[in-house]
């Protein structure tokens, strides 16, 4: 008898004359989605912002990424040269060939698909760098401003 009563109730619930009732309202679903996205993106957290003491300079086959050619680092920070290209690069400070302008950024050979980190940048100023394998190629040159 219980089984028959359950079937009758299910038929009544699923009948086409009665529209299905949503489990959650649209506003509840929207609130859940926003909460999920904010949590997943870590929005509003200090960890979400880039660290101004440690910047990454991306190097590709055709040169340093334009937005990374002129970077600013806070005092006592470091520069990470990340070689995303298929070829090795050698990053040194100007002037060429002495490399005496900012010895802390003389990271030397960076193998393909790897990275090297500069020494700690303790002196405020402007450091210019270049790729030793192509010292005159403007695409592989840039500036680090230490504040």
Topology diagram in text:
Elements: H1 2-14, H2 26-41, E1 54-60, E2 63-64, E3 70-73, E4 78-83, E5 89-93, E6 108-110, E7 114-117, E8 125-131, E9 141-146
Parallel strand pairs: 1-4, 3-9
Antiparallel strand pairs: 1-2, 4-7, 5-6, 5-8, 8-9
Explained architecture:
Mean pLDDT is 80; it is low at 42-48. This protein has a five-stranded mixed sheet with strand order 3-9-8-5-6, with no helix packed on it. It has two domains: 2-48, no CATH class; 54-146, Immunoglobulin-like (Sandwich), CATH 2.60.40. The protein contains two helices and nine strands, in the order ααβββββββββ. It starts with a helix and ends with a strand. 20% of the residues lie in helices and 30% in strands. The relative contact order is 0.16. Strand 1 (54-60) and strand 2 form a beta hairpin. The chain has helices at 2-14, 26-41; strands at residues 54-60, 63-64, 70-73, 78-83, 89-93, 108-110, 114-117, 125-131, 141-146. By secondary structure, it is an alpha+beta fold.
What would a concise description of this structure say?
The chain is α+β, with helices and mostly antiparallel strands and 147 residues long. 20% of the residues lie in helices and 30% in strands. It is elongated, with a radius of gyration of 29 Å.
